[in-house]
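Hey, weird one. I pasted the Small ribosomal subunit protein mS41 sequence into the form twice and got a warning about non-standard characters only the second time. First submission, copied straight from the form history:
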Amino acid sequence: MFAVLRASSSRGVRAFSSTAQAAAKLPLRAHSETPKPADLLTKIGRNAEKKLGEKVPDWKSLTELYFKGTKPMSDAGMTPRERRYVMWALERYSHGDAPSTFIRPPTPAKKFRGWGPRVQNGKRVQ
């Protein structure tokens, strides 16, 4: 039994793969919270409504942008971190999740320099 698993993994074939349905991109549709694509981009945040708002006037164009990947987003001037978050949010939205259940605020900037217990509350600890 283990020889079969070892042989299949040495050829580069995944023995335990996920389903194709989970990996498939589904088209984006209107939701009760977001009747327009601009509303969805506003709820997502991360400057998505400013940078992508004029590119996506309807759901069809937003779905095309989602299927193309991050290249149009990088052309619009979004950072890699913003692109990853927007693609993650669009994927969750395409699978039917309401935006209010998965939208997260951005991480705040660090207030104090330093790593670990040597700097606490902005003061060096001896």
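That's the output from the first submission. The warning seems to come from a hidden character in my clipboard, not from the data itself. The longest helix spans residues 80-94.
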